[in-house]
């Protein structure tokens, strides 16, 4: 088996990808809120729990965006 060199780490578009992920997650939260109107109490609880997890994910992604932006400013390409 031949040795394959790994692809270099390309972080050039990570900030854009993370921003898109944040936007998509926000849209999913909004859609879930709309769905709650027509849901049973049990389903509402599940949707609320999922939206809480989504909010946590958004916070983590925003922190990662800050880290990526700082790395870019410090010369990482």
From TrEMBL:
Biased segments, Basic and acidic residues type: 41-54
Organism, as annotated: Anoxybacteroides tepidamans
Signal peptide from the UniProt entry: none
Region (Disordered): 35-54
Membrane spanning stretches: none
InterPro entries linked to this entry: SASP_thioredoxin-like
Protein name per its UniProtKB record: Small acid-soluble spore protein (Thioredoxin-like protein)
Superkingdom of this protein's organism: Bacteria
